[in-house]
Amino acid sequence: VFLATTNVRLAFDSTRLYTYGFARHNVSEYSGIEKPELERVARAFVSYFNSRARDLNVTAVVTGEEVPLLQEREVLHMRDVKDLVRKVFRLQEVSAGFLLVFGLIGYAIKGKAFARTLGRGLIWGGGLTVALVLALALGSTLDFEGLFVRFHLLGFSNDLWQLDPDVYILTRLFPEGFWLDATLLVAGATLVEALLLLGLGFLLRGRTIREEAPETLLRV
Predict the structure, then answer these.
(1) Are 56 and 45 in contact (CB under 8 A)?
(2) pTM, 2 dp
(3) pLDDT confidence of 217, banded at 50, 70, 90?
(4) Long-range contacts of 195-201 (CB under 8 A, 24+ apart)
(5) What phi, psi does 62 have (nearest 5°)?
(6) Tens digit of pLDDT for each residue in 119-176?
């Protein structure tokens, strides 16, 4: 949970990721917004998710004319998106706090012996994370559109997310391919981190076993 939510948070806060996605999916061509203007739009989205503002009110030069970027339906949908994103941010903070407290209390109670418990936890946690991420990556590769729709049905209580790309610019800024790339990037980062922690778990477990072996022989 901590790894995934941390990577999601980094992705939403990364202006570079937005601009990379815009360039990769030819958003400038489909939206009528020049690349320098898209960079400003990306910064506006990042700022919005980290602010207390309820609505995303931003203007942009579209096909040579400065206009409000979003229509009312899109503004309302962005409220829902922000609520969901902020919940992910809070979950990341709670999971980080839990891990910190768990580590401090475990070390205070068990001392050096806590390394074995920590190693076991990293093995199980890392292994489970790897399995879940691989399943998500496989599902995204085989049927991302289906997963995308199910995510919206579960994450939102209304149909504001259903936006006609011929009418609303939000779906041209963030096409389905943009979200597929972002999902695979977050999954890839989480997978690498989980593998590293899995390896650390085996190292800690092996080290504690080697340290305990001489004591066991002495008792025998």
Answers:
(1) yes
(2) 0.88
(3) very low
(4) 195/126, 195/130, 197/3, 197/122, 197/125, 197/126, 197/129, 198/122, 198/123, 198/126, 198/127, 198/130, 199/126, 200/119, 200/122, 201/118, 201/119, 201/120, 201/121, 201/122, 201/123, 201/124, 201/125, 201/126
(5) -110, 120
(6) 999 999 999 999 999 998 898 888 999 999 999 999 999 999 999 999 999 999 999 9
